[in-house]
User: What shape does this take?
Amino acid sequence: MVTTAKTYHVPVLLHESVDGLDIKSDGIYVDVTFGGGGHSKEILTRLGERGHLYSFDQDADAENNIVDDRRFTFVRSNFRYLRNWLRYYQIEEIDGLLADLGVSSHHFDDETRGFSFRFDAPLDMRMNKRAGKTAADIINEYDEGKLADIFYLYGEMKNSRRIANAITTYRQQRRINTTGDLIAATEKLMRSEKEKKDLARLFQALRIEVNHEMDALRDMLNEASQVLKKGGRLSIITYHSLEDRIVKNMMKAGNAEGKIEQDFFGRVSSPFRLINNKVITPDEQELQNNPRSRSAKLRIAEKQ
Assistant: This one.
């Protein structure tokens, strides 16, 4: 089992995702989710002297894992700005792009960031700690209807309206500042037999809203379709149905909405060709070594 930066993160579907890039030794590749550097390091082992890897991460903590290699460039930025940064480095086309869309174990295990309901911590949840609203800002400032929409759309919670009502009622008495406050505000609506699953969905919904994850993913995929050269590969690991639907739609239809366009002869017009029609999932050994990988799905496509 490969671990990166000690406890930072265990890369998921490491060899399968990098194999999916079909790496050329002199190619230019992008890892848009650097994290602990596991996937990036594997890509570098397959590149020759003339190859190059650009890796993105907006989290300052990821900089501690930067690779000392002249074939490597770290970009501290959200991956939604992919094309602008590549232009900055005078790169017009790339041979492949890898994304592991899961939140790293480092974030869940960091007691100070508010990503996990296991610790009583400030409700932050920002990947980029320098900008944007925190989860506490959202919980205390959004109206009841907007909160309900977030919990339903991003957490797929059927009782989203009741949860939103409980939060707005609680915050009338005191501001919700910590993960413990949020749990206290909603605990009566958490089913005892499924409490952890319900809380995970609640925290997932908040994290997605805080970091604008779905919008950023759409932007990145659109830009990737423009910078990938013909024959270039997309290798993307997803973890929940919302992001997986967007990735699947982009690979099959060429857009995040899944709108199928056909030419005069009825052939589907898409910039991509699917490499694996069936998603790749972790094998039993990986599931035992890394339980966080259990919901991972890998999709690979080639630019036509």
Q: What stands out?
A: The beta strands are 28-31, 52-56, 72-75, 94-100, 228-238, 272-274, 297-303. DSSP finds twelve helices and seven strands in the chain. The two ends are 35 Å apart (CA to CA). The first strand starts at residue 28 and ends at 31.
